[in-house]
Amino acid sequence: MNNSRYLRITIQVICAALIFLQGCESVDRGYEGLVGATDPDKVKLQAGLKWMSPQPKIRPVSSDKMVVYCRIRNSSGSDIDISNAVANEIESLGYRLTRNIDEAQFTVNADVRYFGEGAKKELGPVVVGGVAGGVTGGVIGHNVGDGHTTEGAVIGAAAGALLGDIVANRNKIRDINLVVDVVIGERIEGQKVTTTRGSHDDVAVTHTDAFNKGGGTEGGDSSAGSSESQQVTIEEDFLYHANRATATAQRMNLTLAEAAPVLTDKLSKAIANALP
Fold it and tell me: What is the DSSP secondary-structure string of the chain?
């Protein structure tokens, strides 16, 4: 195949690439349809939740003692807010919320630790995109013709696979994760719970010197260090159970805004139902 035919294939591939890069909605819909035909689950929103540890066996109480002190924090720095959803779910289960911890039978402390896209890599879209691009490129190469249909198709398919990667990268299967640390406390009637907390700090400094004096070498070294620890024993009425929950949503082109309500709903239900 002469250089002019290579150039003609290249020009057609570049034109197709420009269409893809302009964000053509019909191309995205066609690609999504192709993925849906090969793996329908990829284009449907899927969500799940896992606890890091088994749920503790918390003692149930009579209805008049179903009082909960709830505090929600967000140390992740993200914009998501699950506080209202958690409070609503707790109340929907028949509990009464209070701001006075002294009258509470249970405490719920939740801290949002992470909200964002997971690190999981999805190869499926890239493979499907490569196939779609390869077919497109094959057609481009075939249309060049002039007695070199096979050569043109092979070259066009290779170039088209690159276009498929462009589409695949713009239409990724995304995992959005919401990770929350949860501590539930239960008041132990007639008993005191003992908790020992401590901290320890070590500081060490080492210094070494060497210098020449009258044809000889003298050296010296010095070191200093300090160690400090603190410990305190606390008696309280609550026995605490710590756990971590991770909610995950997955779908092609899933955004944080779309995942937030789904994940918030799952986390709030899970936290509320961790109560007895």
Answer: --HHHHHHHHHHHHHHHHHHHTT-HHHHHHHHHHHHHH-GGGGS-EEEEEESSPPP-PPP--GGG-EEEEEEEETT--S---HHHHHHHHHHTT-EEES-GGG-SEEEEEEEEEEEE-S----HHHHHHHHHHHHHHHHHHHHH-TT-HHHHHHHHHHHHHHHHHHHHHHS-EEEEEEEEEEEEEEE-TT--EEEEEEEEEEEEEEEEEEEEETTEEEEEEEEEEEEEEEEEEEEESEEEEEEEEEEEEEEET--HHHHHHHHHHHHHHHHHHT--
Q: What angle, rounded to 10 degrees, do the helices at 83-92 and 256-273 form?
A: 40
Q: Which amino acid is at 149?
A: T
Residue with the two structure tokens 């719970």 = 193
Q: Which amino acid is residue 181, in one-letter code?
A: D
Least confident of 31-45, 55-69, 111-125, 191-205: 31-45
56 within 8 A of 106, measured Cβ to Cβ: no
Using alpha carbons, select from 122, 125, 133, 162 the residue that is nearest to residue 32.
Answer: 125
CA–CA distance, 231 with 182 (Å, rounded to integer): 25
What is the SS3 assignment for 191-222? CCEEEEEEEEEEEEEEEEEEEEECCEEEEEEE
What average pLDDT does the segment 130-147 reach? 51
The residues with which 207 forms a beta bridge, in sequence order, are 222
Beta carbons of 76 and 115 less than 8 angstroms apart: yes
Kindly report, residue by residue over 38-52, the tens digit of the pLDDT.
555 666 889 999 999
Q: What is the pTM of this model?
A: 0.62
